[in-house]
Amino acid sequence: MFKEAFKYYKAKWPPPDLNGVIDFEEPSKTNHESTLVELQDNVPGLHLSFPPIGLQPPQSWRCYALKSHPGILVIRNPFTVHGQRYWIARSLRDYPRAPNRINLNENLFASDAIKDWWNALQQCDDKDEARRLKISMRWATLGYHHDWDTKVYSETMHTPFPQDLSNLCQYIATVLGFADFEAQAAIVNFYPIGTTLSGHTDHSEPNQTAPLFSFSFGQTAVFLIGGTTREERPSALYLRSGDVLIMSQQSRLCYHAVPRVMKTQEEPWNNLPADDADEKLMKPERKKLRRDFEDNSNVCDMSLYRLVRDDSFWLPYMHYLNDSRININVRQVLPSGVKQLPLPPS
Ligand code: OGA
Ligand code: MN
User: Fold this and answer.
1) Fewer CB within 10 A of the end CB, N or C, for the chain?
2) Which parts of the sequence bind Fe cation (predicted)?
3) 61: exposed, middle or buried (C-beta count within 10 Å: 0-12, 13-18, 19+)?
């Protein structure tokens, strides 16, 4: 069942009928009233104020659950335009650098490693070479580094987790009622249009009760969410730029995949609004607001946050996103209260 659905949505010809794909942007337009529930007062932290910079206040979030897949939650793009730009720039410019690991440096001598992929891409004047460098970047890992061969996390493959990303997840987790969540490992996936991620479950984490947070930026994905076996028929949903998908409870260990990344008409990351919520935060009227803003800025690279509003700085990021999607996939590895992984048996 899962495999058939994957093939169907991946196919170039005949192209799939996308009418059955659940669409959080226009929930009323799609005939999914039976599967899609808008959570209003059931979100425990909707009243929380002072979100991290780049996030809209939770009172304005639209949060959904899927009746057919209990535990799946989707927040329809809660980011400001600058917020999206910030996370996109972090994913492309910063996260692919040491101490984080990238697919391009696997099985290489350290001396051959690409130290700064984004910079190398910008400096590359050969068009074909630049294209190769661009599309060959597929993942970066942060914190506890996912071991793609053994699928086992270890203390020897652990580097500090980015504070800003941990803070973002912590805030969203608290709003949704998962206040204990700790971001400890992430995979940043890069998807040039035409690439896919085949069906799998994420079961390497010793802690499989903590939810998983998945952020989408750039071009739109068709995402498949199934059951705990490949025999169950999956549902297809669109994940658009800014959308946050949470796999919690019964859905945490369910099969999922990305069979298709497709060009979107809307490019919210490029449209700077005239009335800019973040701009207001930059000039706080109230002392309380200022104090909170400064607290938030401790866990965000403010110089990058200012840079992303400059169109000439933004241009190469815009080009990258023209035909790519980025997914930041964040997990808690350790059981709550546990400080490190046990040593592997020798
Ligand atoms: C993953 C994953 C989904 C996505 O990284 O394990 O499932 O939306 N990513 O890209
Ligand atoms: Mn996954």
Assistant:
1) C
2) 200, 202, 256
3) buried
Residues 6+ apart with CB under 8 A from 52: 164, 167, 168, 171, 296, 299, 300
- Report pLDDT digits (tens) over 33-71: 668 899 978 899 998 988 998 999 999 999 999 999 999
What domains are defined for the chain? 2-331 (2.60.120.590)
Which atom from ligand 1 is nearest to the alpha carbon of 187? Answer: 5
Choosing from 327, 328, 330, 333 the residue with most ligand 1 atoms within 8 A of its CB, the one to mutate for a pocket test is 327
Classify residue 244 by burial, with Cβ atoms within 10 Å: 0-12, 13-18, 19+: buried
Contact 52, 168 (CB under 8 A): yes
Q: Tell me how far the alpha carbon of residue 206 lies from the centroid of ligand 2, in angstroms.
A: 15
Burial of 57 (0-12, 13-18, 19+ CB in 10 A): middle
Which ligand number lies closest to the CA of residue 197? 1
pLDDT band at 294 (very low <50, low <70, confident <90, very high): low
The minimum-distance atom of ligand 1 relative to the CA of 202 is: 6
* Ligand 1 atom nearest residue 245's Cα: 8
Q: Which ligand is nearest to the CA of 240?
A: 1
Over residues 146-191, the pLDDT tens digits come to 888 898 999 999 999 999 999 999 999 999 999 999 999 999 999 9
According to the model, what pLDDT value does residue 42 have? Answer: 85
Contact 87, 79 (CB under 8 A): yes
Mutational test site, ligand 1, from 2, 138, 187, 201, max ligand atoms within 8 Å of CB: 187
Residue 274 pLDDT exceeds 80: no
Q: Give the atom of ligand 1 at the shortest distance from the alpha carbon of 327.
A: 10
